[in-house]
Amino acid sequence: MSATIKDVAELAQCSIKTVSRVINAEPHVTEATRNRVLAAIQTLDYAPNFSARRLVQRRAYMICVLLHEAGFYQSTILSKVLDIGYQQDYDILIQSYYPSHTKSKEKLEALVRERRVDGLVITPPCDVDPFLSDLLAQSGVPYVQITPLNRTPEVPYVAGDDYQGAYLMTERLILMGHWRIAFLSGPRNHRASIDRLYGYKAALEVYRVPARDDLVLESLYNFDGGHNAARIAMGLAEPPTAIFGGSDEAALGALFALQEMGVKVPEEVSVCGFDDLPQAQQVWPGLSTVAHPVDEIVERAIRMLISILTKREPESRQVVLPSRLVMRGSTAAPPPDLN
Amino acid sequence: MSATIKDVAELAQCSIKTVSRVINAEPHVTEATRNRVLAAIQTLDYAPNFSARRLVQRRAYMICVLLHEAGFYQSTILSKVLDIGYQQDYDILIQSYYPSHTKSKEKLEALVRERRVDGLVITPPCDVDPFLSDLLAQSGVPYVQITPLNRTPEVPYVAGDDYQGAYLMTERLILMGHWRIAFLSGPRNHRASIDRLYGYKAALEVYRVPARDDLVLESLYNFDGGHNAARIAMGLAEPPTAIFGGSDEAALGALFALQEMGVKVPEEVSVCGFDDLPQAQQVWPGLSTVAHPVDEIVERAIRMLISILTKREPESRQVVLPSRLVMRGSTAAPPPDLN
DNA sequence: TTGTATGCGTTATCAG
DNA sequence: CTGATAACGCATACAA
């Protein structure tokens, strides 16, 4: 077996407490003894046993990131989580959570009740699940939400500015000359999709562009949803000159549908999305979209959680970060003959 | 604080060992006492402390999946990992690992040396990293590789059949009438890319299609690599009628380049890839590709590792699973005037 | 500056 | 079938 703190103490001719001091960089150790201990650690190839520390400190040193499903948007979150995973003593456990799935609930409950995790980062739309809410409330585990459906002062969260992003993109389209802009709206249990819809509507109003109900198409925020919605939109008596997908996945579906129908993008119809998924730039002719600072959102959420766990009050418990436009080839002025 | 096994024992009027027996479903407990214990557990809302178990059993109950970077291929692995994450007592720690990154090494070393993980699943191209090899050898942690560069009897692995997949796709193109097939080859430190190249060459040979060196383009297995390679290929005196990307990412880059150049796919040039990434079907006109059974590969790798960890010998330590073709809209017969 | 003793919450041993 | 008691490896009051 491998060496323990006791072995080191023996070899270094001191008590385990002194070794502990050296390991944890505590003060009150002479340079001489410190060096003896360090040498002993070297020769014994000692490394502290993390499980023991976990037990005695009553801390799992693990935080759990809850993901609803492994979609594209989740992937971008994931990659950022992984990049942060280096830091600190904390390990990040990425757990997918499907409310309808019994095993999923059991696992999560075990994680929390058996104190395998110290806290959670919750991504949408997990937060609307009653089972999860109950579990969180009963157990009292700290958690931080990313883009929660309901923003209350009690719940710490980090979010992107969906309203502003949608407003900016709609405004941009209007300034390009579009005034028949379809919006592919997402599910209503998703705060982001609500805000995005409002941002769209607000821009129309400010610029006095007539809002048409038939141009707001509710669909799932995925490829098929966008695909279907685009076909419906193009079948209207007065079809849109621009399609704004509430998510990139939906926008990609719309783009596919248009190409399928032989409609030229962006010459005949412009398309844009929201999220700036990696594939937005890999698809011809490049998808214009709204980007959230996902890196920063995830990082701040994790930092906030760790601050809370270590009783350091975080600087802020409610953070909303601005989005920005990323214009690519899928948007242009509408065909002149339409004006 | 929450209840411990001691509290339960007290309430159930028995020893902690008996409680332990009930929890772990060990034999030698009367129905009566078992029920008393169960009741006590209920009323105290008791759940065993996982850290304590970890310590005493000298096991982290955690396995680490090492990912080189958060690319698309990695994402597909990830989503499968997450789906499996429900099972068992084991948690899955997904850790990204960049050989050049010091922090990355430190983290991994800590994970292994501090016994925070019981074993590793290694994905390419992590396996070619000398630091990692040394760490694995010195520490003796069990591990399973996915599609390793070097297959030796000592190292347990699970892989897809890259050779066969590339052979099948090339064969299919030939049977469609193509005989100028470009192949976008990947890095040589990646076993998969070598096998894929050989599969391509083998099919050419079997069907007596002249192999042209200028049609094998070495590039990175990513979007830009494919993008550049496709432009080079199309600039040849005798350009190909089909471009076979050694990876979907490269193929997507090639597809983009062709569309950019105004080349019609698949009417003028066919394109196909390898991996069957989710976006292969979301890109117009749908990317024909070779699919590995990633779900099964990942699942079997994890199962294999757990078998090894629990000293149950796995059924097999070397597994190669067959690939299959997924034909979509990006491939068709070559233009007739070329024959 | 250093050391001793106790506890963290389990599982495991071995005797009853 | 049951139970005292000893690990497991570290941290931490508290004493020296």
Can you summarize this structure?
The structure is a homodimer of 339-residue chains. Chain A has 339 residues and is an alpha/beta fold. The first copy, chain A, has helices at 5-12, 16-23, 31-44, 50-56, 72-84, 102-113, 130-139, 162-176, 191-206, 223-234, 248-261, 294-309; strands spanning 62-67, 91-96, 119-122, 143-146, 157-160, 181-185, 216-218, 242-245, 270-274, 288-291, 318-321, 324-326.
The gross shape of chain A turns out to be elongated
> Which secondary-structure class do the elements of chain A indicate?
alpha/beta
Strand content of chain A: 15-25%
According to DSSP, the number of beta strands of chain A is 12
Integer count of domains of chain A:
3
Q: In DSSP terms, counting alpha (H) and pi (I) runs of 4 or more, how many helices of chain A? A: 12
Overall average pLDDT of chain A: 89
Quaternary state of this entry equals: homodimer
Q: How much helicity do the residues of chain A have?
A: 40-55%
Low-confidence stretches of chain A: none
